[in-house]
Structures are given as C-alpha cells and as structure tokens.
Amino acid sequence: MTSQARARPRVVLGVGAGIAAYKACELLRLFTESGHDVRVVPTRDALRFVGEPTWAALSGNPVTSEVWDSVHEVPHVRIGQSADLVVVAPATADILARAAHGLAGDLLTNTLLTARCPVVLAPAMHTEMWEHPATRANVATLRERGTLVVDPAVGRLTGADTGPGRLPDPQQIFEVCRRVLAGRPRDLAGRRVVVSAGGTREAIDPVRFIGNRSSGLQGYALARTAVARGAEVTLVAANVALPDPAGATVVRVESTADLRAAVLSAAGTADAVVMAAAVADFRPAARGDSKIKKTSAEPEPIHLTKNPDILAELCDRRREGRGPAPEVIAGFAAETDDILANGRAKLARKGCDLLVVNQVGENLAFGTPDNAAVVLVAGGDPVEVPRGPKDDLADVVWDLVAARLG
Ligand code: CTP
Which residue ranges does the record assign to the Flavoprotein domain (predicted)? Predict the structure, then answer.
C-alpha cells in the first residue's frame, strides 16, 4: 500500500441482512469516490441479498463475513483496530441486539467490539421490530455507550407497508458519517433539538401565495450536524425541496400558522430550538376560496395582517415561566443593511440567547451552499464565522448551544 493510500481515512462498512443492503452499494461508492479506503464486512446472511463480488469490486478490498479467513492477519481484531469509522447500514434488529450484548459470533460483531473509533449504526427493519421494547432497549444501551444510532426514515418498507424503519437515503447517511469523521464531538447526545427551516407561504387564494426565497439549506445543515453530534432532531420544514436529513424527524408545514403549531408543540420537550426559517411577517387578511379573476381593469389591493412572532413567543413563554421551555433559543436574522446594529437590536427585542446574523441579497445566503455570519450571544462576545459551508456555520451554532446547555 502506498503512503498516499494509507493517508486515506479507513472506513469499515458493515452490512446487515436486510433488503436495504442494496442501498449500501451506493453508500460504498460515495465513500470510495471521495477518497476513503473501505473494507466491507457483511454478515453471512447479508450476502444472500448482495453477493461478495459486488462488495469486492466496488471497494477494491477483500470481503469476508468470517473470522476464519486470512487468520494470519488476525482480521477479527485488526479491521476494527485500524478503522477511523465503522458504519453499519443497514443495521438489522439482530445486529443491534448482538452489538448491545457484546456478542462476537462473526467478523462484523468482532469488529464492533475491537473498534475504538466512532461507530455509526443506521438501522432498517419493519416498524414492529423497530418499535419492539427489546430493540428500543438495545438502541438505548448502544446510545448510552456513545454509538451514534441514526433513526430510520419513515416511508415505504418491503412489501405494501409503510412506517418508521426505512434506511435513510445513502447520501444523507454519508453526510452524517462525513461530519463524524471530521471529528465533531458527540456533545448533543441525549438532547432534543428543534430546527425550523425554509420559508413560510401565506395563501392569497387556492393557487397563489406570498413567499420568500429561503431554500432551507441552512436549516437542513443545522439538522444534519445536530444528528451527527448525537441529538434527537425535529426538523420543521416550510416548503423545502431537499432530501430529508438522515436521522431527523421531519414535519412539513406551509404557512406561518402551521410552523408555529409544529414548533411550539415540539419545543415543549426540547432542550434547544433554532429558528432558521424565514417566517412571513404578514399574511393576507382574507384568503379567497376561489381563484381571484382579473375581471376588473384595476387590481384589487391585498390587505395584510400581522403574523405572530414565533421566536419572540417562545422567549416570552420561557421568561414568564408558561409551561416547559427550551433552555437555549436561537434565531436567525437576515439583514440587507447595517447588519450588526440591526442584529443587536433584534437579539434584545426578541429575548433569545443566540442570533445568527447574516447578510442577504443577490447571491448571498439564499440557495447557496456557503454562508458567512456573525453569531451574537446574549451576555457574551459575538463570534464571527467566515464564509464557508453551511454545515460549518451550523457546527458553530451547536458549539454555542452545547456550551450553554452545559
Ligand atoms: N421569526 C419568527 N416569527 C416571525 C418572524 C420571524 O419566529 N413572525 C424568527 C425567524 O425565524 C428568525 C428571527 O425571528 O429566527 C428573525 O427573523 P427576521 O425576519 O430577520 O426578523 P423580524 O422580526 O421579522 O424583523 P424584520 O423583518 O423587521 O427585520
């Protein structure tokens, strides 16, 4: 092996015996194409779904499920010891049970016992198995020990049934793994966070609305990075056309009223809320039941009425001790001019703990993968975040949230 090859991060991709094993081929490709050295370790039964030649050809490495092959290389110890990340996708109920109990009947479970690197498990199974008390207990045990168990997605399962248990999109599992490999701390483990994303739409009539240009990219980056740091994430998404981040519970909303209901309901049990959504300040006072026709020469004016300020409402509830409230509340402020002065005034006015202030305008922030911001901290110094990926800004926000959560 060349020194360049050795410098590649070493990933062990464990594959369990579930129909979603075919999706792990795509995950494998995402790793190899981005320069990772991947050793695939399927269970014996996983090979019934996808055979050894597929894994060997795609990874360029030998593939076995047994501890009895190449024994002189002591694979049952070496593979785990030398890994930078172990990810198991799909992780079946059986793998979760064996991992939780420290069983070591095959190469994958031996590898899980010898790995000292971060371990990510992406379960996929039928809803009944996922919700069974035995599986819940195994997941809780694994999480307590520091394993990152990414909640399955809700959707179509094998056969006609739907529900929680679907393997998340491979690209999204890959994004979580990338953040974990980047060395982010698991400092949100056991924490519940709520993130709002996207932009609300206020109906004028059944076909038209007043909206804004928010893509949801920053909110989705916040959700993704929080999952990688171990949080249980509820993502309230207003009109976002992006794939669901792996591991997050996504609640789709349209209007400010929908967003308010979803955020306030999830905030009751949350440790932190980050309002990244662009919320419409006003809505049409009356929503027409039928499409407005251009019958008259002059257009009818649209009368607007004020929307509730969800962020301010959350902060007011906490200040007044009305019901359970998140310990940390963060907002975003999109400003076009005088961004710092406006941001400081907004932080004080809303009463939140953190305010991420960014400049918006043509080609700035909206719809772009990058962002630059200043995070204003109540009672602390501002933190300047230079232009970079939205995931990096998200991690700065979580650093500050985690510090305040103590
Ligand atoms: N926000 C909210 N509810 C609203 C308006 C905004 O919860 N009705 C939240 C946003 O999600 C964001 C923060 O408040 O986290 C700031 O949003 P922004 O639109 O910049 O502030 P506004 O209060 O609307 O102030 P202005 O439009 O005057 O700048």
Answer: 10-179
Does the beta carbon of 222 sit less than 6 angstroms from any atom of ligand 1?
A: no
Ligand 1 atom with least separation from CA of 333: 20
Strand ranges, E, within 160-306: 162-166, 192-198, 202-203, 209-210, 232-238, 249-253, 272-275, 282-284, 304-306
Give residue-wise pLDDT tens across range 220-233.
999 999 999 999 99
DSSP annotation of 324: -
- Choose one of 311, 314, 332 to mutate for the ligand 1 pocket test, by most ligand atoms within 8 angstroms of C-beta: 311
The alpha carbon of 329 and the centre of ligand 1 are apart by a number of angstroms equal to: 13
- Alpha-carbon distance of 237 to 118, in angstroms, equals 29
* Residue 236 in contact with ligand 1 by CB distance below 6 A: no
Amino acid letter, residue 139: V
**pTM of the predicted model, to two decimals?**
0.94
Which is the catalytic residue, given 212, 239, 358, 371?
212
212 part of the active site: yes
Q: How far apart are CA 330 and CA 328, in angstroms?
A: 7
Q: Domains in the chain, please, with CATH?
A: 3-181 (3.40.50.1950), 192-404 (3.40.50.10300)
